[in-house]
Amino acid sequence: MPNILVVDDQEVVRYGTTLILQKSIDDAQVSEAGSFEDTLKILSTKKFDLVILDIDMPGGNNHQMLDVIRLRHPDIRILIFSSYDEQIFGWRYLEAGADGFLSKKTGIEEIKNAAKTLLRDEKYLSPTLKQTLLNNFTNKKSATNPIQRLSSRENNIMQLLIKGSSVAEIADKLSLQISTVSTYKKRIFEKLQVSNVIEMIEKVQLYS
User: Fold this and answer.
1) 151 and 133 in a common domain
2) What is the phi/psi pair of residue 194, to 5°?
3) Do residues 92 and 136 lie in contact, with contact meaning Cβ atoms separated by under 8 Å?
4) In this protein, which residues make up the domain named HTH luxR-type (predicted)?
5) Range of 184's domain?
6) How many domains does the chain have?
7) What stretches of 14-110 adopt beta strand conformation (E)?
8) Which residue among 56, 144, 169, 170 is buried most deeply as judged by most CB within 10 Å?
């Protein structure tokens, strides 16, 4: 009787994932948590075999969540279930201690496959991530570092964004118009092929 915990701040995602697991895994006992604080509380109540974890959670901090869970529950299997681009972030989270990475854009059958694979005490790699890793191995990281494409000003603004500065704060610090900083921020996102600051930070870490 596998015990599974689904962790996501979106109720509809928890509900749908729970239904999929209950219908596809015999005798599965599925619990839900909507924040990282609740996750730790629930994990302390009984032994779980698998945690399906969104990495963008209230009260959580990406890799740190993995570290905390691993420290307290070293034998638990962790499947990252994220809207982040798995080709960019999948391998990083596997290196950080996850047992699998699954995109929220995936289909129902792949969710079933991922959960069953981890419950067999195996690692899970999606077809997309397998191909990405194969390409990386073949190319031996021949691709250009996208951070090197940033100008000095863009790199400066990127560093301030990483430190948590707002657009208005950056504009004041660099004596620029807010609209100018917004344009720089948009250009940085385009060059790094990210859609938010969290993804930008992850990509910087990937190439650092």
Assistant:
1) no
2) -130, 165
3) no
4) 143-208
5) 146-207
6) 2
7) 29-33, 50-53, 77-82, 100-103
8) 170
